[in-house]
Amino acid sequence: MGKIKTHKASAKRFTVTANGKVKMFHSSHRHNTGNKSAKQLRHLRSDAMVQGKMASNIKAMVK
Predict the structure, then answer these.
(1) pLDDT in tens, 19-39
(2) What is the pTM assigned to this prediction?
């Protein structure tokens, strides 16, 4: 039986928590930060959970 390889690009961007949720970090926090407000940058620092069908797709790629 063949095995599914890990999608390395997804594995670098997403992590699966112990409870099975998919954790991601927000985009738009690397450059052009001088144009964004401090409040926006503060909210982009935190991580977020991926919702719905996208989470199950990512879990299959990262597994």
Answers:
(1) 999 999 999 999 999 999 999
(2) 0.79
